[in-house]
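Try this one yourself first.
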């Protein structure tokens, strides 16, 4: 939550997949790398993370909560 507010000035629940991946790509050294101004290295890691996110799909508790909203 704190990283989402710091880098993108919005709640973590409102981040896009790409923004969330940018934050994840900055670890293990967020002092060196910035999610809101990514280097080429971070952009490559971000793209890889986004690919994995779409390949894996939604998590079981995300699917369950969406079904409850639709019902």
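Now uncover the answer:
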């Amino acid at each position: 939550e704190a990283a989402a507010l710091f880098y993108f000035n919005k709640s973590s629940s409102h981040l896009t997949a790409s923004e969330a991946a940018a934050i994840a790509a900055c670890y293990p050294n967020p002092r060196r790398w910035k999610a809101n101004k990514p280097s080429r290295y971070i952009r490559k890691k971000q793209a890889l993370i986004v690919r994995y996110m779409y390949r894996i799909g939604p998590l079981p508790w995300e699917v369950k909560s969406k079904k409850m909203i639709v019902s």
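Discussion: Residues 40-56 form the longest helix (17 residues). The two ends are 29 Å apart (CA to CA).
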